[in-house]
Model the fold of this input.
Amino acid sequence: MISMEEAMKKPLPTPDGDSAAFWKGLHTEGKLLLQHCRKCGHIQYYQQGYCRQCGAEDLEHRPASGRGKVYSFSVVYRAPGPAFKGDTPYAVVLVQLDEGPRMISSMVDCDPEKVAFDMPVQLVCRKAADDITLPFFKPL
Amino acid sequence: MSSKSKETIRGKAAVIGIGMSPVGQVPGKSPLWLAANAANKALADAGIGRDQVDGVLCGHAFAAPFHRFSVALSEYMGIRPTFSNTLQVSGATAATMFNIAAAAVNGGLAETVLIAGGDSLLTGMTPDMALRSMTESRDQQYEMPFGIPVSNTFAMTAHRHMKDYGTTAEQLAMVAVTQRNHALRTPGAQMTKPITVEDVLNSGLVTTPYHKLDCSLISDGGAAFIVTSAERAKSLGIKKPIYIMGGGECYTHEHIFLMPSVTTTGAVQSSKLAYDMAGYGPKDIDVAGVYDCFTGTVIMVLEDLGFCPKGEGGRFVQDGGMTYGGAVPCNTNGGLLSFAHPGIPGALFHFHEVISQLRGECGQRQVAGAELGLVHNLGAGFATAATTILGTENTL
Done:
């Protein structure tokens, strides 16, 4: 069980050996890095040590275009705990990136109730802490 | 993945005792008390003493700090098992415990296994803390920072199902209405007032497309079972042992964004494994417990278990397919939506209900002639799926 004090704070990522480059890319360059497998060509999100398709270690980080479409979404009216209560309603989106992979994010700079299936969206980087920038999306 | 092994657990293990604590709002009782209370009832039902238990399997409890709940429960009850584990595959944990217990009692790891769970999500925690604790199960780097409730992962799958197959909000609501009607016949159910489709649609949005009444309850409670080998069940003179006929599991992803299909779940494969092992198919199932954390979950899983074609789950429910007189009465106790949902014990209640149906002990909610039952558990945004098929002696 987490403490009430912890529950009041928004959860932030703690980068690890697999993901350090990803979070650095967002924070220092405003770029969403995807991993491209040099062996089989698979493109993957999120960052890890092996290609999930062929198991190779020969992975290269390349910035994504930052464009995609809303594959599915859900507008949150009842927050998952106290930290997000002030933000409701907000739209959590399952974004299908133009490069292929899907990712979870939430929408900014728009009316959450106007979010729709297949809506084109664009990456927005927002600083969330001194050393962390989060990837959000806005309508394109 | 067809035939894993010819030597299976089919019919070789039996549930010989079942028990349930008080459920719903149970103030002043710890998760361990709830589990132990259910366990003592299961032991009494089986007619054996706790000294005869040599295996203990449990799930975790949100409101209790124990990393090894099964070990803590053993100590609490004065049991010293020689086989024990605390399993964690979220909502699918219950069925995995039955599958593993069946293997354990046939592989020489244990003779008599106690399966138990207890938690107090309702009175042991505030609603805010209960929801946040569940959210802690999402990935801290790629999911949690975006304020994604566990409900949201399921909501996004149902939402896409609505887009792809034309499933309607009214059809989702019909799952809640059907199960509420079932709960009205279940003594001890947390929800006791009938509801209509309009009630569900007017109950306030939680996370689209789900309204409050599309979501399962937050409850206290515990359930427990005694599993032993079929041989030992016979030598103990158990009146109506219920046999574990088949089991299967499937784990398709961890992160919701890596779910291979957002609208088809691991139930397709877990149930195929269970059906193949049991030697039965969906048409043979008399009664089912289908994990119902949300209404849309039931519709998707009814399809994936083969009770209706893909995409027709909404219509199946609307036409009465999941209630008495339909193709397969499901969640006859009211399920997680209307009976109770204290976390891990929630899916154990599905086992309790299906086993009670097979024993013919369900009174006014008895499914006439029920011989073969199926329980499907799932969790973590469909990351985990586990199916168990249970049957009476006639199905062996």
About this structure: The first strand of chain B starts at residue 13 and ends at 20. The radius of gyration of chain B is 19 Å.
